[in-house]
Amino acid sequence: MEIPVWAWLTVLGVIACMLAIDLIAHRTAHVIGVREAAGWSIFWVASGITFGGIIWWLFGAEFGQQYFAGFVIEKSLAVDNVFVWAIIFAAFAVPPQFQHRVLFLGVLGALVFRGIFIAAGAALIGNFGWVLYLFGAFLVFTGVQMLRQRNEHFNPEKSRTLKWFRGHVPMTDAFYGQRLVVRKAGVLLATPLLAVLVLVEVTDIVFAVDSIPAIFAVTSEPFLVFTANAFAILGLRAMYFLLADLMHRFIYLKVGLAVLLVWVGVKMLLLDVFYIPTTVSLLIIALILATSIIASLRATRGQARRAIAEGAVGPFRMATDDELAEVDPTWRRPMTRNAK
Q1: DSSP code string of 152-173
Q2: From first to last of its 340 residues, what are the pLDDT tens digits of the chain?
Q3: HSE on the CB side for 39, CA within 13 Å?
Q4: At how many degrees (to 10) do helices 222-234 and 34-59 cross?
Q5: Can you tell me whether residue 174 is helix, strand or coil?
Q6: Residue 309 and residue 167 in contact, taking contact as beta carbons nearer than 8 Å
Q7: Which candidate in 72, 220, 223, 328 could, as Cys together with 3 as Cys, close a disulfide (CB 3.0–4.6 Å)?
Q8: Is-contact 289 72, C-beta < 8 A?
Q9: CB of 83 closer than 8 Å to CB of 207
Q10: Which residues, 6 or more positions from 107, have their beta carbon under 8 angstroms from its beta carbon?
């Protein structure tokens, strides 16, 4: 699959335009409701499917199926990421109107880091083919561990990342709107929102360690790996606002994701022994996910949405109007009276 430079530039340009549209649409802080989140989710999923259709039309059914298999894998593994975000926001009682800014910047960082990981993974596989077997064994191990630890939950307050951040970065004890940093009395300080952003970014990097090898099990084409990743994670913000308060209903999703990782790991280990067609792989992936989701929804039938952060009192407060008025210009020091 030969991809010209102009195709890469076009895709990157389209992604940049889509991010700009999203940023403009959410330029003012507001609480995103279920209806708005559903609309954006449909938009992002439709964009990913449309791009897959273009791949299928230009390069044939095999590459089209590889893209869709990768897209489904990344989208499904991202659901676990969404639930971790919900736990982080609830633990620190991040005001709902500020959450989109954190997630927008988090996804932007995720695109950059995953691009780096994909390039490194493609280079390793291109020069050392046996690395695929390491990826396969790692995915099987990760899937088994996920199955064994399916009832354990991430605790943001015990995170080593947060502990390091608090110990090394001067930080305020209050949220200052959507600001990530503020300058007070000439000193630049991080706000709790920046600490939350760092935690979100680090957790995404951890999840990428699983998802990037997983997608290489269904396609070795860097262009397909990157675009499937990009279009899958572009819609994560909308997915969060749509599903965060339904996380208690997906009780078997972790089991499904564990089985999915084991499946793609075994598929990777059998590459030189038994070839599994992409069509069969895509159907099995869809069956695993559909089974876990349907089983979860049936088992929790009748349970309503649950606002996970409702009434939560976190470790940080909102800055008062007087404190907001005391903030200096962020990126330049205030001029003294004697300055000319």
Answers
A1: ----GGG-HHHHHHHHHS-B-S
A2: 678 888 888 988 988 888 888 777 666 766 677 788 888 889 889 999 999 999 999 889 999 999 998 898 888 887 777 778 888 888 788 888 888 888 888 888 888 888 888 888 888 887 877 788 888 888 888 888 888 877 776 676 677 887 888 888 888 888 888 888 888 877 888 888 898 898 888 888 877 877 788 888 888 888 999 999 889 888 888 888 877 767 777 788 888 888 888 888 888 888 777 777 888 888 888 898 889 889 988 888 877 666 554 445 567 777 777 777 777 766 665 555 444 4
A3: 6
A4: 160
A5: strand
A6: no
A7: 223
A8: yes
A9: no
A10: 233, 234, 236, 237
Of 228, 231, 225, 261, nearest to 80 by C-alpha is: 261
Whether the CB-CB separation of 274 and 113 falls below 8 Å is answered with no
**pTM, whole model, 2 decimals?**
0.80
What is the rounded CA–CA span in Å between residue 66 and residue 48?
A: 13
Owner of token pair 């990421």: 81
Collapse the DSSP code of 328 into the 3-class scheme (helix H, G, I; strand E, B; otherwise coil) and give the result: strand
CA-to-CA dists, residue 142 to 60, 135, 279, 313, angstroms: 33, 10, 25, 34
End-to-end CA distance of the chain: 62
Q: Which amino acid would we find at residue 152?
A: E
Q: CB of 288 within 8 A of CB of 228?
A: no
Distance CA 223, CA 315 (A): 43
Count of CB atoms situated within 10 Å of the CB of 339? 7
Crossing angle between the packed helical segments 222-234 and 61-91, to the nearest 10 degrees: 40
- How many Å apart are CA 75 and CA 236, to the nearest integer? 8
**Pair of tokens at residue 296:** 């979860």
Cα-based angle 159, 308, 192 (whole degrees, multiple of 5): 45
